[in-house]
Structure formats: C-alpha cells, structure tokens
C-alpha cells in the first residue's frame, strides 16, 4: 500500500480538493480527509489498472508497478485495501452527517460502475477497435474525469458552495478531466518512458483509440487549446480567488509528464 501511494505522482486530485475548498473558505484541516481519500482511490485504481488482466504494465510513477515489485495477489489485495481505507476515513470524519454523506456519495459514484470502473470496462472492450470521438470522450469522462469531478465536488461541499457554484465547477472539472486525458495521449506519443515515469507508446501498442489517432496530432493539440479556453472562461467569475484552480487547469494542459 505504501509503495502504491507514497511512490511519487502529481497529486492532482487532492490538490483539487484543497483548491476548491479554499475558494469557498473551507478550513484547510477540514480538507485533509477528503483529499487523502480521493488519492487513495486514485492509487487503488492505478494498482488494479496495471495488473496483467488489465493494462499489464510494469512501470508506474517511475518505479515497478505493485504486482512487479511484489506479486499479483498482493497487488489485488493492496488495491482492495486502499479502496476500503478511503471510505473508512470518510465515514469516521468528525463533520456533519450531511457533509459526510455528500463526501461518500461523491466518491462512491465516481469510483463505481457510473465512473472509473465503468470507464475501465469500456476501455477494455474498445481495445483493438476504432472508436468514435464521442465514444472516446464518454469513456474518458468516466475513467479519468469522474474522480476529478469528485475531487472538485468534495472540496466545494466542504466549503459550503452554493448549488450554482457546484454546477459551474462540475463543468470545470469535466473540461479538466478531458484536457488531462488529451494531454496524456499526446505525451504517450511524444515522450519517453523515462520522462513519463510509465510505459510510453502503450496505447498504440495495444491498438487503442486516442485523440491523436482520431484527430491527428495538430487536431489533438487544438482540442487541448479549446479545453484550456473553456476552463479559463468557467473560472473567470471567481477572479483572483480562483487562481489556484486555474493554475491546476494550466498544469493539466502544459505538463511534461
């Protein structure tokens, strides 16, 4: 479990919890539990995603994946334990019942069949097939975007954001999740395994549809620019207080790994 969680990574999802909560005046300490929980769910998903039955990858965050460093059974159990630990932390938090339920509902929905697991199933089914752009976006909205949306929503709930703000930030999170994936697809083509900390060229080797494959590299970069503009426009009403979220959005677009 430590190998999976503490071995590096961008920590994008917990940062989104903190940035969104801060936008609405949440105390930083009150954001620790949802930030940790969302990162544990992300780590569990990576452990299982790397298994031989899934993406069969040997490198993650610049180090051997859990099933390579230990063994496949240990990786399955570690992933299961990380997932349950996330919900244990949320359930035990000293917050109002309404907030606790909001956290739990947001994270459970994002992690299950209507989120990450559903997206991974679509990804497996699409291997070796040419997907339409709409199917590709739906898959990534579930596989990648759902947990990013949950991170933003959990921060907003902690800060007591109004319903209209929650909906606005859902739209920001959706654009961010898609931008993150488009950039991932571009880096998979243009970068090396050493730069990425994971196996480069994996999508092409597995005959998976990607944004560069469907749109061409120029088209994929144009899509990324469009999403960057969308994120900027969504956050504009918040002005300077929204700058931390805006910075995370720019990072998703410009990152080198």
From TrEMBL:
InterPro entries: Isoprenoid_synthase_dom_sf, Polyprenyl_synt, Polyprenyl_synt_CS, Prenyl_diphosphate_synthase. GO terms for molecular function: metal ion binding; prenyltransferase activity. GO terms for cellular component: cytoplasm. Keywords: Isoprene biosynthesis, Magnesium, Metal-binding, Transferase. The keyword Transmembrane helix does not apply. Its cofactor is Mg(2+). The keyword DNA repair does not apply. GO terms for biological process: phospholipid biosynthetic process; terpenoid biosynthetic process. Belongs to the FPP/GGPP synthase family. This is Farnesyl diphosphate synthase.
């Amino acid at each position: 479990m430590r190998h999976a969680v503490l071995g590096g990574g961008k920590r994008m999802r917990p940062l989104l919890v903190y940035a969104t909560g801060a936008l609405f005046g949440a105390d930083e300490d009150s954001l620790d539990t949802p930030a940790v929980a969302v990162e544990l769910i992300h780590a569990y998903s990576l452990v299982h995603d790397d298994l031989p039955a899934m993406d069969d990858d040997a490198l993650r965050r610049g180090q051997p994946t859990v099933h390579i460093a230990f063994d496949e059974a240990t990786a399955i159990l570690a992933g299961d334990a990380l997932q349950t630990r996330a919900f244990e932390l949320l359930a035990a938090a000293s917050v109002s019942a309404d907030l606790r339920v909001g956290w739990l509902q947001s994270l459970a929905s994002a992690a299950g069949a209507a989120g990450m697991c559903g997206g991974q199933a679509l990804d497996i089914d699409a291997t070796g097939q040419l997907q339409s752009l709409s199917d590709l976006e739906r898959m990534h909205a579930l596989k990648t975007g759902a947990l990013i949306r949950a991170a933003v929503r959990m921060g907003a709930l902690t800060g007591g954001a109004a319903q209209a703000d929650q909906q606005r930030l859902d739209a920001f999170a959706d654009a961010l999740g898609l931008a993150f994936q488009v950039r991932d697809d571009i880096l998979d083509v243009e970068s090396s395994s050493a730069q990425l900390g994971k196996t480069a060229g994996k999508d092409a080797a597995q005959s998976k549809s990607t944004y560069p494959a469907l749109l061409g590299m120029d088209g994929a970069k144009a899509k990324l620019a469009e999403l960057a503009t969308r994120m900027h426009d969504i956050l504009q009403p918040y002005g300077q207080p929204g700058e931390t979220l805006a910075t995370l959005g720019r990072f998703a677009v410009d990152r080198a790994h």
